Predict the 3D structure of the following.
Amino acid sequence: MMNFDNQSTTDASVPQGDVSSQLGQWPVQLTLVSPMAPYFVGADLMLVADCVPFAMGDFHTKFLKGNAIAVACPKLDDTGAYVQKIADILTTGKPKSLTAVHMEVPCCNGLRVLAEKAIA
């Protein structure tokens, strides 16, 4: 458990007004995406842990913009079918890259392990 002492939202570094979403696909949950989805073909694929977009203020511009994503939680999801699903995405869509984006906490390391098993 952590409690963050956040800076004021009036900080000059915080974007003001509406910030556009960079989401280019739906669905995003690994359980729901189709390995045959056209947005995976030749894409830079981001396998993202559920908590990352909430913890990282610039997630949309740093990781989401222009990339295909699949979101999962290696701790709370039933990950039994995830290795095969990721392998199917890699085989069918032939994305040009795969990046696992996760928090620096022990439970999130499972996302990287799922990706490594799928590649193998």
About this structure: The chain has a mean pLDDT of 87.
